[in-house]
Amino acid sequence: MYIELLILMQIEESPKYGYEIKKEIQNDLGYLTDVNHNMLYPTLRRFTEQGFVTKKINEQNGRPNQYVYEITDSGRSKITDLINAFSDKESKHQIEFLIRVSLFQRISKENQLRILNMRKKDLELLEADLTKWQKKHVRDMYRYEVLQLSIAQVRGEMNWIQELIRKAGE
């Protein structure tokens, strides 16, 4: 679902054609995600059909036509809906969570706290599982080290989330 959100956010910034949307997402978040044509163009087609974006033809001499996408008012509303629509399934995926956090200025404090607490709960469960697995693999040095790193990353994210919860409560 985060891909849909990223696509709409790019079009909201300014009207863009497909390749430009892909390029901008990768410039902004290439270290986190990759957008391929099989994800981008079907999503743009669906958004056009649903009225979230409009599509205009930009005719080019000697080259294929480009389609320029522009956001509609219902597309802007859809962005807020997508940010708020954070489910238990999505809370297990770091990128889904991080994209939402980066857009917190667009949603209520109540929903910010709901999203933060959902992710925190999942991380607490993950930490318990990783610790259990680590105890099972104490004799396998490399697996143990990978699990140790994973536990440290989970704890670091939980500390960061706790700080965001504190800030959201102010």
What is the string of helix and strand elements? HEHHEEHHHHH
Q: What is the quaternary state of this protein?
A: single chain
- What class do helices, strands and sheet pairing give? mainly alpha
Radius of gyration: 20 Å
What is the terminal separation in angstroms? Answer: 30 Å
Keywords:
170 residues, 3 strands
Write the layout of secondary structure elements.
Layout: H1 2-13, E1 16-17, H2 18-29, H3 37-50, E2 53-58, E3 66-71, H4 73-84, H5 88-91, H6 94-102, H7 109-136, H8 141-169
Antiparallel strand pairs: 1-3, 2-3
Helix pairs in contact: 1-2, 1-4, 6-7, 7-8
Structural features, described:
With 170 residues, the protein is mostly helical. The chain contains 8 helices and 3 strands; from the N terminus they run H-E-H-H-E-E-H-H-H-H-H. The chain has a 3-stranded antiparallel sheet. Strand 2 and strand 3 form a beta hairpin. Helix 1 packs antiparallel against helix 4 and helix 7 packs antiparallel against helix 8. It is elongated. The mean pLDDT is 92.
What is this structure, in a nutshell?
The chain has eight helices and three strands; from the N terminus they run αβααββααααα. Helices cover 71% and strands 8% of the residues.
